[in-house]
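Subject: mismatched residue count in predicted assembly?

I count 282 residues in my input, but I want to confirm that the predicted structure covers every chain. Input:
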Amino acid sequence: MPELPEVETVTRQLSAVIADKIVQKVTVFKSKSWVGEVVKVEGQQIKEVSRRSKIIRLRFADNLNILIHLKMSGQLIFVDGQTRVGGGHPTADWTNHLPSKHTRVMFKFTDGTQLFFNDQRIFGWMKVMNDEEVAQEFALLAPDANSSEITLPYFAEKIAKRNVPIKQLIMDNQVIAGVGNIYACDALNLARISPLRPAASLSPVEQKKLLESIQTVIALGIQKGGATVHGKYVHVTGMSGHYQEVLRVYGRKGEPCPNCGAPIQKIKLAGRGTFFCPNCQV
DNA sequence: TTAACTGTTGATAC
DNA sequence: AGTATCAACAGTTA
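Triage response: the counts match. Full output below for your records.
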């Protein structure tokens, strides 16, 4: 999916265009993509759009919310017929032909604007929840990677006694929330730490360097509007992000390491494609 | 053609 | 508990 920076970008853009709008009609094309009763949200006004980890929250009045997880291939595309967010025009023609065959849920607002939830792989979801259910869902998560709650003592304690490879741990939402495969690979390269290292083997200096590196790449990802890698993740306008232009190692097998110039290697770790520099990431 | 790959994360089994 | 594997799905790439 979209990892924290991508979801943060979508959340900010969405907030700018759909806050205060009133849902007129929700059309569910794929029942698996929607959990809850459509009638609960029809006629309701969106009060706030926010994000926790990789989950987007649409908050309505009266104890009503929709949580959205984009998983691997979800997109939220806002269309108002003429102008689009940021005044830009979507690069892809498909934004002019919505709903598409990948549109799973469609919102129509009372002012005639529309929001499309497209999700090729159908892993993503939208769930209608009350405030308590939202709180329960969020309580399962560690603090967000870009939150001040992730302190060095917290991080060090979380990874101290674990034998799993460090990359696996920094992608664990119960350890630090929002870091996925792309930013995990890049953070480890920036910290010059091998993804294979058992978490407990990191020295205090390495723990500090890794946490700072995670915070750095996540912040850069947000600043760049997220990474559009295989045309999957896009902004609510259909436009691409820019982090893919500054990727350190992710997807760059054979290319020179930004630290030392040695060729980047790709391995499989815990079932996930993992890019790193075997020369300087030790 | 077939197999393996893909940005997530849950359920399951040891 | 901590860890490893697989499944959910559809499409692309080797």
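Residues 152-276 of chain A form a domain with the Helicase, Ruva Protein; domain 3 fold (CATH 1.10.8.50). Marking this ticket as 'not a bug'.
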